[in-house]
Amino acid sequence: MNPVFADLPVSVFEVMSQLAREHDAVNLGQGFPDDAGPEDVRRKAAEAVVSGWNQYPSMLGLPELRQAIAAHYRHWQGLALDPEREIMVTSGATEALAGSLLALIEPGDDVVLFQPLYDAYLPLVKRAGGNPRFVRLEPPDWRFDEAMLAKAFTERTRVVLFNNPLNPSGTVYGRQDLELLARFCRTFDAIAVCDEVWEHVVFDGRRHVPLIAMPGMRERCVKIGSAGKIFSLTGWKVGFVCAAPHILRVLAKAHQFITFTTPPNLQAAVAYGLAKSDDYFETMRRDFQASRDRFAGGLRELGFPVLDAQGTYFVNVDLASLGRNEDDETFCRRLVAEHKVAAIPVSAFYAADPIRSVVRFCFAKRDATLDAALERLAGALKRTS
Ligand SMILES: Cc1ncc(COP(=O)(O)O)c(C=O)c1O
User: Fold this and answer.
1) Residue 238 phi, psi dihedral angles, 5° rounding
2) Ligand 1 atom having least distance to the Cα of 96
3) Which positions ≥6 away from 63 have C-beta within 8 Å?
4) Using alpha carbons only, what angle is made at residue 383 by residues 379 and 385, rounded to the nearest 5 degrees?
5) Local structure of 221: helix, strand or coil
6) Is the peptide bond before 215 cis (omega within 30 degrees of 0)?
7) Residue 191, SS3?
8) pLDDT at 89 exceeding the cut of 70
9) Considering the entire predicted model, what is its pTM?
10) Cis omega (within 30 of 0) on the bond before 63?
11) Residues 50-63: pLDDT tens digits?
């Protein structure tokens, strides 16, 4: 069996979810909202199942959805994408990532990755034969600079995998950061695979800037989105890939033999949803921001050192300044057992040299759930061993 997968340990996400069930805990570990998602979008999907097309749709995705994706990104991010040649629908961002990495990496290529990293990245890069080169990001700002990139990029760098906004830190990288990264991609002739699934979940008036919009990046970026994240319907697994025709052509070959297509009824509903008014998207952001403020404010009142949460469904606390002799994983295990709240230790997002003081909570939950968690968290900082 292939050791990349055979040797993968049980993930801390599974461990924490199991412990959450055992201890009947409020689960703020897993990153999904407890809201049912927009009813009109769900009704569209139901209608499409009953009255619509249920056979194989076009391999690149329903034309109406590809047009809706182009219109959506034109409106929200000022991008001009050709729905015929530059957009493909995939079964979630996860398939888009797998297909992109399989299609772009040649065995022996160096691949630049930013830690903390989403758990799917490393096994996929390794299975594609890539040689990971890490940029290690640290709290409180999780920023990268020229020296860090210079250390990670090599003459063999062909692919850079970049997640913005970044899960788990909730960092939103702006133009200056993107220009720096774009410069390295151009200099080293690398393609950037941009995981932008959190593009709509940004707060405090921020606007997501896609790396593909930076000078010289139109021809060397794969932009990945997820309807699951945009509409808080994480089980739908409808993703999008946008790339210049010479790249998309190759990605389509990988997609052809991974899933080939994505359920047409869900695609039809996503096409409808992407055309929803600005008000829908602004309200969604405002609601998540209110949850962030409620939960982060509560954590601060309890004495948790809360880090800036600029986007995503997550807020982090950094226990380093509290001088405790407990690492993030020990803290999380104690939290779930003694206080019945599940969270995720951020060290799980590092493949090497982890930060061991940061804990991630998902705040995309109802007020009552967040309040119950805060009540249980009172006293969690009292013990130091
Ligand atoms: C950074 C990142 N990439 C990809 C995904 C997976 O997206 P999808 O459910 O569309 O496959 C997630 C889900 O949490 C994520 O946080």
Assistant:
1) -120, 115
2) 11
3) 83
4) 150
5) strand
6) no
7) strand
8) yes
9) 0.97
10) no
11) 999 999 999 999 99
